[in-house]
Amino acid sequence: MIMPFGKYKGQQIDDLPISYIVYLLEDCYLEEQFQDTLKDIVRTKLLGEETSDYIHLFELSRDFISKDRLNSIINEAYKKAMIIAHPDKGGCHEGVIAINEFKKIILENI
Question: Of 24, 50, 90, 93, most Cβ neighbours within 10 A?
């Protein structure tokens, strides 16, 4: 998909910096479908394709798992992702910001 506007107009969305994607998600009014695409890109970039599949399963199964267990699963995944993304471990500040945003989005939807 090609970025339709902004300073990265005409570039592949997959190639955008995570910090710019997080900015778009936080500060810009976007159509829901475009928001979903950006969220999927952040998930894949930070957590890998396999984790995105787990998130999809999580979304499908959340009605069958207690809220306490869901919070526990989210916190475990959050800690693992933060260890990988932390600047002291070779990650970057933008990754930490994106993971925090991702956790916020998930917690809002359970």
Answer: 24
Give CA–CA dist 58/29, Å, rounded.
Answer: 27
Exposure string (b/e) for 76-102, b if CB count within 10 Å is 16 or more? Answer: ebbeebbeebeeeeebeebbbbbbebb
pLDDT tens per residue across span 37-70: 887 777 776 665 555 555 555 555 555 567 787 7
Domain boundaries, the chain: 13-108
Summary mean pLDDT of the chain:
77
Rounded alpha-carbon distances, angstroms, from residue 48 to 11, 40, 55, 58, 64:
21, 10, 11, 15, 25
Structure tokens at 35: 């928001």
Kindly give, in sequence order, each residue whose CB lies less than 8 Å from that of residue 82, ignoring residues fewer than 6 positions away: 96, 99
